[in-house]
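Here is an idea for our session: we take a single protein and study its fold together. Which protein we use is up to you, so please pick one and set it down. Once you have written the record down, we can walk along the chain together:
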Amino acid sequence: METKIKEIFKKIFSAEVTSIKKLSGGISFCTYKVVTETGKAYVFRYGENYENTGGRYIDIGQTFRREKFFFDTISNKLVLCVPHIYIVDDSHELFDYTFEIYDYIEGCSLEELTSDVNDEVYYKIGKIIASINKIKLPDDGFTEESWSSVFSKRLNERLKPLVRDNLINQDEVKQICSYYNCFKFTEDRFFLHLDVRKGNIIYKDGIIGLIDAENAEFGDPLFELARIDVYNEMKESFYKGYMDEMGIKDINRESIQYCGYALEALAFLTNVFIHEIDAEKEIVEDMKNRTIKMKDKILSAIS
């Protein structure tokens, strides 16, 4: 594999590779840090198409192109340290897998930092994420499908596998999905990272960076917040920064709209913990219980 990566870098950048190190990456990807003779560090990531637990076919080339569109747009509109993606290649002419190459962002993730990061940094991160969530998708943007359609399909996709795990039954899935399929969502589409957690926020010498946008979507900013809440890694100062940038006084976590977003996020992580990664039993049980609790809350509200 390393020999092949060296050949690809020689072909694309006309530079010899001096070091290759495998990194921890996404569930569906293999990720390497690659340094060339110029001293420049890159990330080389590859994967192949697959069907997820909900039955949706995932096109890795489309995933990588969406990530590139997300970061390219952000870098043009905001002063923020994000990776520049040089190439997304799913031609299989240079490599047997779909791959992308992008800048390696120097620094440590908040997850890696041994000392506690102060509230001021989290406040700034909150403002950054809000700034991203204020970027509106242009009419000729990456997708033509409505947000209502995207979310309704995604919710059904997340809930279906949980039937097998006895966390929800078919009638409940039908009732919940039918409700949100008819729900009047705002159709304005905004940029959503959808993986805002400590592992994807880089910090060095006062500079904040954001990486790993393969989950990027274009929709309702409240969906971003629901996903962040489910991860439960941000300090209160993050939310203060977010609300200040958005110009809002509070976040309505009791609304049926928020609850639907939270259920999708909880179901997503529950599927990951049960079927895709080796998580500790206590974490899996907690996620299951949170999913059931949110499901019951929605059913009570819409019955």
